[in-house]
Predict the structure.
Amino acid sequence: MPLNMDTTVSVIVPCRNERDHIEAFCRSVAAQTLPEGWALEVLIADGQSDDGTRERLAALCLQDARFVMIDNPGRIVSCGLNRCIERASGAFIVRLDVHTVYARDYIAQCLATWQRTGADNVGGPWKAEASAGASATEGRVQRAIAAAFQSRLVSGGALSRDLSYEGEVDTVYLGAWPRATFERFGGFDETLVRNQDDEHNLRIHKGGGRIWQSAAIRSTYVPRASKVAVFRQYRQYGYWKPFVMRKHGQAAALRHLVPGLFVGALLALLALTLLGSAWLGIAPPSLDSAWRAPLLWGTLLCAAGLGLLALLYGAAVLAISLAIERSAGPGLLRHLPDVIGAYHFGYGLGSLRGWWDALVRRRPDPAFGRLTR
């Protein structure tokens, strides 16, 4: 029986190499409760998985006609989302992620929020929680990663981490849109491996649209389980942000600039200190004292600035770690400083490299073209 576009919700899902998670995810989507009269279609764009995901997904689609597998030869998220949108038949489109657990009324609340607000994109807060199946040691690390992720002190005050906030925002987790949003603002930028959702939301804002966050739209995201994985993930987020900024000529929010500026300042002070010290060490005795004294003082000032900046950051990280442990529970303090550093330095270093490639090389590095998980 053909679907009625006016009363169909199209769920769009990009995925690649999710063999261990795809079956549980599909069961959770199938269990969603929709308002009376609404139908569901689920479009899953597989990015040429090579770990058995395609075979499992194909079998699931045979069991439930609401589920459809779509090929995503571009492999990345933005391409997968666009392929799904092209095939979607619903008047309302909801994006879901395989590594997120959803309340049974998640889609219904997205619908209700859109109908109540008339916003161009609606979504819920971004709640992170460790996997229940992790070992004791891995569980503590992942709990620290989730707790730091949830902290607005770590994320620069992002409203998306506020589980109780209701109102307009600059971006939401995942997103849900009336079809008219894509007709008005277009689809996702397929040149972006990361940050395609931020870029799309910025486009909505600049075009006069509205984005709404509702605390009633509830989901739980399972973050990376290691500090190295978090560093790699956020280095990639930081890398692609300058390409978004270059495209629109502005930052979506000031917090996106801070990590790169901070890491850049540290590296600049370190380089000036080392260069000044090296020059003073090899400079001939005949060097005019009029040059030696300013060089010495400049090197000392750079060294002092570097030490002060590092000390202030270390003190702030310790204070934030103590605050997070008080709210998230004991046993995390050992890991929190490393985790917070992975978030900040990963994003900051990625931003610096991204700015170089966006402004100087004028093209992205293929090494940053693959998703990390």
